[in-house]
Design goal:
By secondary structure, this protein is of the alpha/beta class. The protein has 14 helices and 15 strands. 32% of the residues lie in helices and 22% in strands. Strands 14-13-12-11-7-10-9-8-15 form a nine-stranded mixed beta sheet. The protein has a six-stranded parallel beta sheet with strand order 3-2-1-4-5-6, with helices on both faces. The termini are far apart.
Amino acid sequence: MLKIGVFGAWRGNSYIDLFSRDSDIEIAAICDRNLDALLEDKEQFEGAALCADFDEFITEGKKRGMTAVFLANYFNQHAPYAIKAMEAGLDVVSECTAAATLAECVSLVECAEKTGRKYILAENYPFSAENLLMEQIVSSGTLGTLLYAEGEYNHSGGNDELKRLTPGKYHWRAWMPRTYYVTHALGPIMYMTKSMPLYVSARAAHSALLYELREWRHNYDGAGIMFCEMDNGMIARFTGCTAMASDYSRYRVAGDIASAEWGGYIKSGKVRRFYFEHTCPEGEKRDTLLDADLSRFGEDGKKAKKSGHGGGDYWIVKEIKDCFLGGKEVFFDVYRAAAMSATAILGWRSCLNHGENYKIPDFRNKEERDKVRNDNLTPFPDENGEGITLPCALPVENEKER
């Protein structure tokens, strides 16, 4: 039995539900400043500690046998709480990006190494039905030598939705540069191709529409596009969380024999596999739409169909159990999590410097960690509106004149 605590009941609500319905998991504690508003049925969690303070959450959770925490707090505040939890002897699942600064990336990795605690980044997009099929196709060698991959994550919204998602003057969503929310675009690419980013160059594009909301949404760029050299020799193009005129996400991997893709004009539940005329194997169709049917996973597939993000949330819970209870290694460990965060952070610096190329530190290497150990540059303010050391959007000419 895994006894887990959840920090953040708003973002963590879907996992609270999944944990509650899993016979191998018991929720030992839940922590949120707004528990009364977020937990309608507190009796459901009888025996669990319900806390408004993180330190109390750790203390009371451990009294109830808690051995792991699921972090679903604010996007830019995961690393400090992950470190606190690991220092308290707990394993950690981070629902969002691992760290908001390069210095935090270093501290997070070194804490995991020092304490020996397990760390999982709960990036669920690689485990959607379509992306799982993409991974199977890539891993089979069907595509040949991998040359290029792309991931596009779009999340636009109207004023009412944006205001609902930005509850406060210094809320992270009002200050997050377009490259920072990179996990849903880069994560699937890394998982499908089993690769790591080495260098990043990026550009952002200003949105006049979002600029009209600048008094309360200061990150008014509409798109952040990153371009990476990967450690398998492939190149990759991917977005942060963009607000482009698209209502879908899309992914593509191309090799020298074939390519695979989904999203856009390819309807949900299908993956397109395409061979060149001169590379198509005998007896195969050049252009095929494959069904991303989760039933091939048996009982796990049936359960995944009932969970969110195309089944991705189910597979995250399974990974948590396999790792924390079974000792299985996970793909999105602390090193890959730190590399993704560093890609987002350095991608933004590249945007601010006209596409300058930045090397992404290898966080397994102490010498490379030392180079960024004291790098605390950040676009995020603290709760008092202080501490910003980077702009969160591209400079605008008429803004300079104000």
